[in-house]
Amino acid sequence: MDVVQNGPAGYKKCMKVTRSVIALVAGLFCANAEAQVRTEQECARLHPGITSSVEYASCMYDSTQAEKALKTAFAKLWPHVHGESRNLLLKAEQAWLKNRDAQCAYEADGYPNNTAFSSSMMACVADANRARAKYLEDDIKRW
User: Fold this and answer.
1) What pTM did the predictor assign?
2) How far apart (Å, rounded) are the C-alpha atoms in residues 96 and 58?
3) Average pLDDT of the chain to the nearest whole number
């Protein structure tokens, strides 16, 4: 698979496939290997009324859980950080969020008015949130 062999270039090439809704599911699996991905069948079982590819992407990448993990990690780190470091942590988190959104928009190929873009964004944001949550959890050890 291009992602494994070619790194970011392979990922970008793979994400271009998501322009068509038919290839959407394949595009979602091109994301970070650490992601907890559900199958389409699992999502249909968990959410019987699910119909759109955006709903499937939300379920498959469990974006709600990824967002919760990020907020939980930040809340766990916060009591360990004191003084000016708190202000720096807030600034860093705001900058990270802005960068995450820009990076994911770039990786989704920048067409915000189509389903493939929305689904690709959702998958990217979920993966980025999981990675950031792990980083913040690991940072507790520093304090």
Assistant:
1) 0.63
2) 22
3) 74
